[in-house]
């Protein structure tokens, strides 16, 4: 069954929305020299979430069950599997590439086009996440400068490359018959993901911290975790205790 741990909820939420704007002065640093501009884009993404994504997600939650939402998430994750295979190969992770290929074939057939996940449940082949931003990180490209992209949310000068590569390695790009169909599938994916992040949204709103700085910290931590396969160099982070509490409360 498809699950999302709390720290990943927070990061995924950051990817979909700019969270909440703040009235504090920008505090630029080496990883965020464009903070003033980024906060403006962040505010735009907040409005988008408040007036479009969040209401649509609440409506979607009312008419679907958790099982349906998991299946929809599985479906879209499965469509992105070829991109994961490609990036595993580019990183020299040939065993992971083989495992993800097998997972894709099993879930696309036995799993009914990826709606279900028998590869994980019965064969123990868990999902792996790899994208071109991670690949560049493995190759030594630094994750800077930090960027907040309109509609997409947190990114960086390195990580924005994952969007075009992800588009051209996603099965949906080649099976969608027209722009309307592609747009409809994309909308369902975004709304379904946002619906699964409701708990993260509440946790974020209840946190007495700078939402912009929190999102930036969450994103940079998460990407470092991905590049180092969960074993990054240990650096002190102002929100590290918060993430530890979320993880222990899962």
Secondary structure elements and pairings:
Blueprint: H1 6-16, H2 35-63, H3 66-79, H4 81-90, H5 94-109, H6 118-121, H7 132-138, E1 146-149, E2 153-156, H8 162-168, H9 171-175, H10 179-195, H11 198-206, H12 211-227, H13 240-248
Helix pairs in contact: 1-11, 1-12, 2-10, 3-10, 4-5, 7-12
* Spatial strand sequence of the major β-sheet: 1-2
Multimeric organization: single chain
Q: How many alpha or pi helices?
A: 13
Residues in helices, as a percent range: 55-70%
Task: List the helices and strands in order.
Answer: HHHHHHHEEHHHHHH
* Structure class: mainly alpha
The profile of the biggest β sheet is: 2 strands, antiparallel
Mean pLDDT: 84
First-to-last CA distance: 16 Å
Shape: globular
Taking all Cα atoms into account, the compactness measure Rg is 18 Å
Uncertain parts: 1-7, 16-28
How many strands in all? 2
> How large is the share of residues in beta strands?
under 5%
Briefly, what is this?
This protein has 250 residues and is mainly alpha-helical. It contains 13 helices and two strands; from the N terminus they run αααααααββαααααα.
Description:
The chain has 250 residues and is mainly α. The protein is built from 13 helices and 2 strands. The protein has a two-stranded antiparallel ribbon with strand order 1-2. It is globular and about 50 Å long. The protein starts with 5 loop residues before the first helix and ends with a helix.
């Amino acid at each position: 069954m498809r699950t999302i741990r709390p720290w990943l909820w927070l990061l995924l939420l950051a990817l979909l929305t700019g969270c909440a704007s703040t009235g504090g002065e920008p505090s630029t640093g080496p990883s965020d020299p464009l903070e003033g501009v980024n906060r403006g884009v962040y505010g735009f993404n907040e409005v988008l979430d408040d007036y479009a994504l969040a209401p649509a997600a609440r409506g979607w939650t009312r008419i679907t069950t958790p099982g349906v939402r998991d299946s929809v998430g599985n479906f879209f994750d499965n469509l992105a599997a070829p991109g994961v295979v490609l990036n595993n190969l580019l990183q020299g992770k040939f065993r992971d590439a083989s495992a993800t290929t097998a997972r894709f074939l099993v879930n696309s057939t036995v799993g009914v086009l990826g709606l279900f996940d028998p590869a994980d449940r019965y064969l123990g082949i868990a999902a792996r996440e790899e994208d071109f931003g991670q690949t560049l990180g493995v190759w030594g490209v630094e994750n800077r400068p930090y960027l907040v992209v309109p509609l997409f949310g947190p990114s960086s000068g390195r990580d924005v490359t994952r969007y075009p590569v992800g588009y051209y390695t996603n099965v949906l790009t080649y099976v969608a018959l027209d722009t309307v169909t592609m747009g409809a599938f994309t909308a369902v994916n975004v709304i379904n993901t946002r619906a699964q992040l409701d708990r993260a949204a509440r946790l974020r709103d209840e946190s007495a911290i700078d939402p912009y700085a929190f999102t930036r910290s969450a994103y940079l931590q998460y990407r470092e975790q991905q590049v180092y396969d969960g074993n990054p160099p240990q650096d002190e982070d102002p929100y590290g205790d918060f993430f530890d509490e979320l993880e222990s409360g899962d």
